[in-house]
From TrEMBL, chain A:
Pfam families: Acyl-CoA_dh_1, Acyl-CoA_dh_C, Acyl-CoA_dh_M, Acyl-CoA_dh_N. It catalyses: 3-(methylsulfanyl)propanoyl-CoA + oxidized [electron-transfer flavoprotein] + H(+) = 3-(methylsulfanyl)acryloyl-CoA + reduced [electron-transfer flavoprotein]. Belongs to the acyl-CoA dehydrogenase family. The keyword Flavoprotein applies. It comes from Rhodocyclus tenuis. Its cofactor is FAD. This is 3-methylmercaptopropionyl-CoA dehydrogenase. Involved in the assimilation of dimethylsulphoniopropionate (DMSP), an important compound in the fixation of carbon in marine phytoplankton, by mediating the conversion of 3-(methylthio)propanoyl-CoA (MMPA-CoA) to 3-(methylthio)acryloyl-CoA (MTA-CoA).
From TrEMBL, chain B:
It comes from the Bacteria. PROSITE patterns: ETF_BETA. InterPro entries: ET-Flavoprotein_bsu_CS (IPR000049), ETF_a/b_N (IPR014730), ETF_b (IPR012255), ETF_beta_N (IPR033948), Rossmann-like_a/b/a_fold (IPR014729). One of its GO terms (molecular function) is electron transfer activity. PANTHER family: ELECTRON TRANSFER FLAVOPROTEIN BETA-SUBUNIT, ELECTRON TRANSFER FLAVOPROTEIN SUBUNIT BETA. The electron transfer flavoprotein serves as a specific electron acceptor for other dehydrogenases. It transfers the electrons to the main respiratory chain via ETF-ubiquinone oxidoreductase (ETF dehydrogenase). Gene3D superfamilies: HUPs. Its cofactor is AMP. This is Electron transfer flavoprotein subunit beta. Keywords: Electron transport, Transport.
Length: 605, 251
């Protein structure tokens, strides 16, 4: 058995020494986020993740969320029943205040920085991916409402959503409108009282129905009768499961029903709902903000959600690593390589198993470092008093969100798969628990925009549109670090320096090619979009691992004997030799690979 | 009614401890530290008494290095009202801790002191008993149930003893040490963690309390337990019985 143990040492290192918690704590409104307070928050979150959420992970997967035709709370219609223990765990989660960690204090939130939220979210996701989606979506929906909703809507919904008494959802997808939201057909008909009646079907609605909260606040994209075609004619509506009376109490059941849930590869405990709005006369909805600006509002929550899903990649790496490591320590098989006739040894002694474990560990640390650094930049971009600093950090965040989302989740899948490989045949058996991580991690590279969508966003909106300015600034920052690496001594740093320098130049060359090509042959540029996203992830991850190694060396030089720092340098070196070394190949694949992607005629497939 | 709860910062129960190579003690460098689990039970019991309207104030006390503050903040986050740190870098032994707590009790006059029955690092199981003796107060150790009477002059305490359970009545003020079955400690809530930062934490020293904490015992050597030697397979029940009879001589 492998119990999840929150990797607090590395989390604290990244928060304090890499991502700059002390600087974030100096931003207006974040003064409470001092090191000792954050330590206390992390300790308690770790206890909750380990003690409450993690034990429900395997049972939740086996039992799954259940839909039935009379599954609603009072049996008057269809609804979803959560696996045993989830309702109680969610109640304890909400009572403990975890839903309110990053929320606006005006509505009862604690207003802690995204950097701290990132660390805590990673723990929820490592402990129980399926559970973690409910608070993730509620937080995103509340954020969109607080930024775009009227005062009445905010007063009606935000306090209850912040405390977790009510949960929230995003209703975007329709059968014909997946990645292409311009094809949305749900209708919103204006009523005399200013409200709307919503009609239409939505699919893939995460936590669209469940029995953990007394009300569910759906944010629904739909078209008003006068709306223009395409993405410019989409509006956002609040459609609560139960209408809310003027005094805040719950009123009539709204005409918004979960008519079935999906059978999925993973995250079985997370109900993925088909929602029917208006089958019985129309679901009452309230317009959020202005008509036809729904997609813009949805993207506010989408960016937060994409960052949150990126953390799923980090979480998958960490959890899969821990289980594989525990197994490799216990499993005795074969004598040690190069020893004749010796005793059989734990498989962790075998170089190929060791390589797999190092790769898992290095990816966990690199994806974590990059995600938290982007989280800290988000805090600076939101709260720093200086406009130029805010703008610079926002540009960095905008560039890196698709990378944190796309790269981390692709890596999470790969690492979860390696975790199975470490287990050998036992990994393919569900009882060992390694397979669930792969099944659960698989969705992260799909929902909230597939890796391909992230990659197109990266090379189009985030690079070509501004001539690659933010990317070039980032590359300059990386080159500055390269100079520091050149000065560090020892064979580990020599290896890191060599690989990092080559990686940065590969990134620069491929980035230039993407920006230059985008205007003249957008199809060729797009053919290289995903490899470019992976390249930027690898080099940015290597950049953070190199920074971490330099910080670790400075600690060692100052007499710190914590073996963590030695380990960090070795892990950074592994990342450089085994992962950063792929940068050249990826750059070639981007700059030379387009003809091979598009040359075959469609009918040759 | 005021309750005093001593809490100790110890190696986290999940950590596999290592003996220092020179055998002088346990290697504490870079090891995760937490509140002694028996003390968590003690804080929980005190907080429940306050929530039930029986106690009016819960004071957490710790003695040791400055970083014992973290443990006190945890106690505050779990519901203690204020905290006292007796700061010293001298290695504290049970008698010294009992004397320090006696000095604090004389200042604070609690009706009930609830130490954990033992700390999971040295497993001494002495401090509570010594404190009761020094104060001349009744003691109820290894408690699994506590009922304070209506006028708060006495309490019925159920104790976990070898043969089962024993219920005794003690006059207050008294010392009651906790066993694990007394309650199940809660998780600290996020708002309470935030509020804990602002609750009062007073720092004092053994000298200020007039207590000599010099160690009375000397640690000669700390060693890992002997490794378990491998077992043997027996062919059948007869051989097992034969070996138990003649080799192990247990039947």
């Amino acid at each position: 058995m492998s119990e999840y143990v929150a990797p607090l040492r590395d989390i604290q290192f990244v928060l304090k020494e890499l991502a700059g918690l002390d600087q974030v704590a100096q931003l207006p409104g974040y003064e409470d986020a001092t090191v000792d307070l954050v330590d206390a928050v992390l300790d308690e979150a770790a206890k909750f993740a380990e003690g409450v959420l993690s034990p429900l992970n395997i049972p939740g997967d086996r039992e799954g969320a259940k839909w039935s035709a009379n599954g609603s709370a009072n049996g008057d219609g269809p609804g979803v029943t959560m696996p045993a223990g989830f309702k109680e765990a969610y109640a304890l989660f909400a009572e403990s205040g975890w839903t309110a960690l990053q929320s606006d204090p005006e509505w009862g939130g604690q207003g802690l920085p995204k950097l701290v939220g990132a660390a805590v979210t990673e723990m929820w996701k490592s402990a129980n991916h399926a559970f973690s989606l409910c608070p993730l979506l509620t937080g995103g929906a509340a954020e969109a409402l607080s930024l775009c909703g009227s005062d009445t809507l905010k007063k009606t919904f935000l306090e209850k959503m912040t405390s977790g008494v009510w949960t929230g959802t995003m209703n975007l997808t329709e059968p014909q409108a997946g990645s292409d939201l311009s094809a949305i057909r749900s209708r919103a008909e204006p009523q005399a009282d200013g409200s709307f009646r919503i009609f239409g079907q939505k699919i893939f609605i995460t936590y669209g129905d469940h029995d953990m909260a007394e009300n569910i606040v759906h944010l629904v994209l739909a078209r008003t009768p006068t709306a223009p075609e395409g993405v410019k004619g989409i509006s956002m509506f609040v459609v609560p499961k139960f209408l809310v009376n003027a005094d805040g109490s719950l009123g009539a059941r709204n005409d918004a029903w979960c008519v079935s849930i999906e059978h999925k590869l993973g995250i079985h405990a997370s109900p993925t709902a088909v929602m029917a709005f208006g089958d019985h006369g129309g679901a009452v909805g309230y317009l959020v903000g202005e008509e036809n600006r729904g997609l813009e509002y949805m993207f506010i929550m989408m960016n937060a959600a994409r960052f949150g899903v990126g953390l799923e990649g980090v979480a998958a790496c960490e959890r899969a690593y821990q289980r594989a490591r525990d197994y490799a320590r216990d499993r005795i098989q074969c004598v040690e390589t190069g020893v004749r006739g010796g005793p059989r040894v734990p498989i962790i002694r075998h170089p190929d198993v060791r390589r797999m474990l190092m790769s898992m560990r290095a990816h966990a640390e690199a994806t974590r470092a990059l995600a938290y650094v982007v989280g800290a930049a988000h805090d600076v971009a939101t709260r720093h008093p200086d406009t130029a600093t805010r703008r610079r950090n926002q540009a960095f965040v905008d560039l890196m969100i698709p990378v944190v989302k796309g790269w981390s989740t692709e890596v999470g899948i790969q690492v979860a798969s390696t975790g199975i490989q470490v287990h050998g045949g036992m990994g393919f058996i569900e009882e060992t628990g390694a397979a669930q991580y792969l099944r659960d991690a698989r969705i992260s590279a799909i929902y909230e925009g597939t890796t391909g969508i992230q990659a197109n966003d990266l090379i189009g909106r985030k690079m070509a549109r501004e001539g690659g300015a933010t990317l070039n600034a980032l590359i300059e920052e990386m080159r500055a670090l390269d100079a520091d690496l050149g000065q560090a001594s020892g064979e580990h740093f020599a290896a890191i320096h060599r690989r990092f320098a080559a990686g940065v130049e590969a990134l620069a060359e491929a980035g230039r090619w993407i920006v230059d090509t985008y205007g003249v042959d957008v199809r060729a540029a797009s053919a290289g979009a995903t490899p470019f996203l992976m390249l930027l992830g690898i080099v940015a991850g290597g950049w953070q691992m190199a920074r971490a190694a330099l910080i670790a060396q400075a600690k060692i030089d100052a007499g710190d004997t914590d073996p963590f720092y030695q380990d960090k340098i070795v892990t950074a070196r592994f990342f450089a030799d085994h992962i950063l070394s792929q940068a050249d190949g990826l750059a070639d694949c981007i700059t030379f690979g387009a003809p091979g992607v598009m040359a075959l005629d469609e009918d040759r497939f | 009614m005021k309750i005093l709860v001593p809490v100790k910062r110890v190696v986290d129960y999940n950590v596999k401890v290592r003996v220092k190579s020179d055998g002088s003690g346990i290697d504490l460098a870079n090891v995760k530290m937490s509140m002694n689990p028996f003390d968590e039970v003690a804080i929980e019991e005190a907080v429940r008494l306050k929530e039930a309207g029986i106690a009016t104030e819960v004071v957490a006390v710790s003695a040791g290095l400055a970083n014992s503050q973290e443990t006190l903040r945890t106690a505050l986050a779990l519901g203690a009202d204020r905290a006292i740190l007796i700061e010293t870098d001298v290695e504290l032994q049970p008698l010294a801790v009992a004397k320090l707590l006696k000095a604090v009790c004389e200042k604070e006059s609690p009706q009930l002191v609830i130490p954990g029955k033992q700390a999971i690092d040295d497993d001494s199981n002495q401090t509570g008993q010594m404190l009761a003796a020094l104060l001349g107060w009744p003691q109820a150790t290894f408690a699994s149930k506590l009922v304070v009477n209506a006028d708060k002059t006495a309490a019925a305490v159920t104790r976990e003893i070898d043969g089962g359970l024993e219920t005794i009545e003690i006059a207050l003020p008294a010392v009651m040490t906790t066993d694990l079955r007394l309650n199940e400690p809660r998780y600290a809530t996020l708002p309470n963690i935030m509020k804990a930062k602002k609750k009062p934490l007073e720092t004092t020293t053994p000298a200020a309390l007039g207590v000599d904490v010099a160690p009375r015992l000397k640690t000669l050597k700390v060693a890992e337990p002997a490794r378990r030697s491998g077992g043997v397979k027996v062919a059948d029940v007869a051989e097992l019985v034969e070996k138990l009879k003649n080799e192990a001589k247990v039947i």
